[in-house]
Design goal:
single chain, mainly alpha, 1 helix, transmembrane, membrane, Mitochondrial import receptor subunit TOM6 homolog, transmembrane helix, TOM6_plants
Length: about 55
């Protein structure tokens, strides 16, 4: 009845290529999130390395 709405399965080569691209992007995002605090700490020129909370 609604067979036009069902997408075709891509061939395995195209699926693996897209999967590899998506996993690469995911890895880049994870690496960027993991490295961001170290970069922020390195760029901060504050000599006081202690976190101070004012209550």
């Amino acid at each position: 009845m609604f067979l036009g709405a069902i997408p075709r399965r891509p061939d395995k080569a195209a699926a693996y290529k897209q999967l590899r691209k998506h996993l690469t992007l995911l890895g880049i995002w994870v690496a960027a999130i993991r490295v961001a605090p170290y970069v922020a700490h390195f760029l901060a020129k504050d000599k006081d390395h202690e976190l101070k909370l004012e209550l």
